[in-house]
Design a protein that fits this description.
Layout lengths: L7 H23 L1 H25 L4 H50 L2 H10 L1 H17 L1 H7 L1 H34 L3 H43 L4 H12 L5 H13 L6 H29 L4 H51 L1
């Protein structure tokens, strides 16, 4: 039957379906921010359910939830106490010593014929000296720029508080909501959905715990090495290494490059060479020993899927999306595996039913 011969009712139904799909997609686009908050809250709730379950064995569940989230709330405060004071003092020192550093750079350039020729052609050091003398004045006017960031900071705090509250509700009542929803399904389907949800929760929780342990190891070892080398800002740089180590595949490399740049201003080239050697060796150990153990126990994803999920997650939700990309991909893989097994069992049982 051609489109011209189709009954008006069929045409109207198809048009309404297309319009419904378009309106639904547009509604999802408009609600993309709260939907992203809900996704983050779900994964945070799954990650926090492990500590809550452990604490609930010794106290009431309400107290366990409060204590677990109090510990979570203290983490960024402690990190801020570690990172912010050295950065502020370091920025002031940099502003005061910037002209001296520029003069040292000019002396180094003047002693090297090749660099002296480049300086004569492009005047790079002259520009650095000019900017170094202007740096204290620029830092003095940084308060205005910080005021402009106030609205963004307020929005970020509001989003964080909202995600935390949503995750608390999910940790407290999410299991009961899931049980009620599964009770509405046929027994066979409810059993499969329950098994898939348990596998997803186990995989996500194991991955988050493993990733945090991996980041902690990276941060502690970086702090030890930087302290031995006498590099300034060892604690903030270690926090930076730990944070970027949470980003799969590329995070550790980015952090290593940033720290290597910092070592250029301490004891070049000894500190830089020592740090690069450590970073290369540690990343090999992490990629071949630590990370495989985490992914083997939590998720079983092909490296291509890992990289693709990280790229899409970062493009859609920024750093948070990159951090949650692998557990989200693992959840999708579990759902597809359960669905495939369900279809296979249905085909095997179809001849028996007939």
């Amino acid at each position: 039957m051609s489109a011209a011969d189709a009954p008006p009712r069929v045409i109207a139904r198809n048009v309404l379906i297309v319009l419904g799909v378009l309106l639904g997609a547009y509604a999802i686009y408009l609600a993309r921010q709260p939907l992203s908050w809900i996704v983050l809250a779900v994964f945070l709730a799954v990650a926090m359910s492990g500590p809550v379950n452990v604490l609930s064995r010794r106290m009431r569940r309400g107290g366990a939830i409060a204590l677990a989230y109090l510990g979570l709330f203290m983490i960024p405060i402690l990190l801020a106490l570690i990172v912010v004071p050295p950065i502020v003092s370091g920025a002031n020192d940099l502003a005061a010593k910037a002209p001296e550093y520029a003069a040292q750079a000019r002396d180094f350039v003047e002693k090297n014929p090749t660099l002296r020729k480049l300086e004569a052609n492009y005047g790079v050091v002259s520009q650095l000296e000019a900017q170094a003398h202007r740096l204290p004045a620029k830092l003095g006017g940084a308060a205005g720029a910080l005021r402009d960031l106030g609205l963004g900071l307020v929005n970020s705090i509001f989003a964080s508080v909202t995600i935390l509250i949503l995750s608390v509700f999910l940790v407290k009542d999410g299991h009961r909501w899931v049980r009620r929803a599964l009770a509405l399904q046929p027994p066979d389907r409810a059993e499969r959905l329950d098994r898939a949800l348990d596998r997803i929760g186990t995989a996500v929780g194991a991955y988050v715990r493993g990733a945090l342990a991996q980041a902690t190891i990276a941060g502690v070892t970086a702090f030890i090495v930087l302290s031995i080398l006498g590099v300034g800002f060892a604690a903030p740089l270690a926090v930076l290494v730990a944070f970027f180590d949470l980003i799969p595949l590329v995070g550790a490399t980015i952090a290593a490059v940033v720290v290597a740049v910092v070592t250029l201003f301490t004891d070049f080239p000894a500190d830089t060479i020592a740090w690069v050697i450590f970073a290369v060796i540690y990343q090999q150990v992490e990629n071949t020993v630590i990370q495989p153990q985490i992914q083997r126990r939590a998720v079983d994803l092909h490296p291509f899927v890992v990289l693709a999920s990280v790229l899409f997650g970062s493009a859609l939700f920024g750093i948070g999306g990159a951090l949650l990309a692998i557990p989200f991909a693992a959840a999708i893989q579990i759902v597809i595996a359960e669905w495939w097994e369900y279809r296979r069992d249905s085909r095997l049982l179809a001849p028996l039913d007939s």
